[in-house]
Design goal:
Layout: H1 15-32, E1 36-37, E2 43-45, H2 46-54, H3 58-62, E3 66-68, H4 77-82, E4 89-90, H5 99-104, E5 111-114, H6 119-128, E6 138-146, E7 158-167, H7 177-193, E8 200-205, H8 209-223, H9 232-240, H10 254-258, H11 269-284, E9 290-291, E10 303-310, E11 319-325, H12 329-332, E12 340-346, H13 347-353, H14 358-361, E13 367-372, H15 376-389, E14 394-396, H16 403-413, E15 417-422, H17 423-428, E16 430-435, E17 441-445, H18 449-455
Parallel strand pairs: 1-6, 8-9, 13-14, 13-15
Antiparallel strand pairs: 2-5, 3-4, 3-5, 6-7, 7-12, 8-10, 10-11, 11-12, 15-16, 16-17
The protein binds one RNA strand of 76 nucleotides through helix 3, strand 7, strand 11, strand 12 and helix 13.
RNA sequence: GUGGGAGUAGCUCAACUGGUAGAGCAUCGGACUGUGGCUCCGACGGUUGCGGGUUCAAUUCCCGUCUCCCACCCCA
């Protein structure tokens, strides 16, 4: 039996109703903040992620689905029919870093990658279509992303993100701490709106690149003498990415980590002021937050404000969304200066955290039509068409069904009413309409059916 | 990528130290030819994840592999 590939899954009813409920609520919230939807390709040039997300990040270094495009010749038809020459798909794992990734783009077959996140794609589109000239600087997206990680609860190889970006020239206000606060307040509204309580907003600032360099230096100095006493992971981090030492959960390491310098001590004046203003606005709009100067986001492009919303009951993957400011990203991708801030919600995790049950958001049929006897399918179809025009949810059976079977079907579907369409009814021009919950049954003339069904509860 | 646990009917789970698989629910049919949710009877449904090994005999023991779950790594 062919099964869904590792780390992917089918979303089935009634769960899909819950997903649609979430997405509808989210679109509502975005509208109120004047965000507009953008849809970018599901795959992009590998180079975009290498430059945008950072070649040293785990995502780019070992978690991308990457393949080499073959231009116009073979496409996928031959290998699939004959199974003789399967398409070559590999992760970047087998490649040498940087040099090869950029070389591939220059050959005949360009290197392509399933998007592991959506910010790079949005910024690429912003640059490509000169969106700053159209006043489009508040964008949101909803869609699948792909990472080749080991699956576990709340983590899939195809997962869904709901995200938004504020991006634009500084003159448009995109650099303002007001945007940071607006984004955070939007998120608080959004979570409340979909019915998630008990979230925690953790807030930090990682400063400008200059601050980070200085801080990294100080961190290395502080770690140098103590690194040998730390866990194996930390020893590796000290070399590759000292910031990540703060993520360590090994108890023995905590006393050492407590004494390390903090990024907050290295923020320059503009960054410090920016961060203070973000906090001041949050207090003014009464969005609760906790400062966490150990919160360091993984992607290279973050600077200044970084944040995370967490929620219990998600296991180890307790971050329901994360984001931050990325003022240098546009330039890193060859675009104009365009400060920005954004976030990505893990939709899979968001749905998992919902108190709402899938059943409760499914719209059940208002009426089930039971045709009874030869020729009654025709009558039933006409009635169904008419009732559906009145915005009623209608389902129906078949004239060969015994009445009992129709009743059982109506019960199973959770219909509110059953409408019996038999010869007697057609002759009389009035139909037996029975409320399934109470058993109350009335005879209703054709013309009054729609009104009768929609009115009652 | 690393470590641990688990895969038996559509779903939830049984099957003692190896003896060729069973229940509940669900589905379909009947009791009940135009009136359901209850009850009773019956039927359908499994290459016990897949492949190999040990054995007279494997759901059970061993090896490999795939998938899921938990944790690490990392992240949404």
């Amino acid at each position: 039996m062919i099964k869904a590939p590792r780390g992917t899954r089918d979303l089935l009813p009634p769960d899909t109703a819950l997903w649609n409920f979430v997405e509808a609520a989210v679109r509502d919230v975005f509208r109120a903040y004047n965000f507009h939807e953008i849809r970018t390709p599901i795959f992009e040039s590998t180079e975009l992620f290498a430059r945008g997300v950072g070649e040293e990040t785990d995502i780019v270094a070992k978690e991308m689905f990457t393949w080499e495009d073959r231009g116009r010749q073979t496409e996928l038809i031959a290998p699939i029919r004959g199974l003789s020459a399967p398409p070559r798909i590999s992760t970047v794992e087998g490649l040498q870093p940087s040099s090869e990734i950029s070389q591939i783009g220059e050959g005949k077959g360009q290197s392509l990658t399933l998007r592991p996140e959506n910010t790079a794609g949005v910024v690429r589109a912003y640059i490509e279509h000169k969106l700053w000239d159209r006043g489009l600087n508040k964008l949101f997206y909803i869609g699948p992303q792909f990472r080749r990680e080991r699956p576990q609860k709340g983590r899939y190889r195809q997962f869904y993100q709901i995200g938004a970006e504020v991006i634009g020239p500084a003159t448009a206000g995109s650099e303002s701490p007001a945007r940071d606060a607006e984004i955070l307040e939007l998120l608080a509204t959004l979570l409340d709106r979909v019915g998630i309580s008990n979230w925690t907003l953790e807030l930090n600032s990682v400063g400008c690149p200059a601050d980070r360099a200085e801080f990294n230096e100080a961190l290395r100095k502080a770690l140098d003498p103590v690194a040998a006493k730390m866990c194996a992971d930390c020893q590796r981090r000290v070399v590759t990415n000292p910031l990540r030492v703060f993520d360590c959960k090994v108890p023995e390491d905590q006393p050492i980590i407590e004494k390390l310098p903090r990024i907050s001590q290295f923020l320059d004046e503009p960054c410090r002021v920016h961060f203070e203003q973000v906090q001041a606005i949050l207090k003014s709009v009464e969005v609760p937050f906790v400062l966490n100067d150990r919160l360091v986001r993984g992607l290279d492009y973050y600077q200044k404000t970084t944040f995370e919303f967490t929620h219990g009951a998600l296991g180890a993957q307790n971050a329901i969304l994360g984001g931050g400011r990325y003022d240098g990203l546009s330039e890193a991708l060859g675009g104009p200066a365009a400060p920005g801030i954004g976030f990505a919600i893990g939709e899979d995790r968001l749905v998992m955290s919902l108190a709402e049950s899938a059943e409760s958001v499914v719209r059940k049929p208002d009426v089930y039509i039971a045709p009874l006897g030869t020729g009654m399918n025709r009558e039933a179809a006409r009635l169904a068409r008419e009732l559906r025009r009145h915005d009623l949810v209608v389902d129906l059976g078949d004239e060969s069904f015994r009445l009992k079977k129709s009743f059982e079907a109506a019960d199973r579907l959770g219909a509110r009413y059953i409408l019996i369409v038999g010869e007697n009814e057609v002759k009389a021009g009035a139909f037996a309409l029975k409320k399934l919950a109470s058993g109350e049954q009335v005879t209703v003339p054709r013309g009054e059916l729609a009104q009768r069904i929609s009115r009652a509860t």
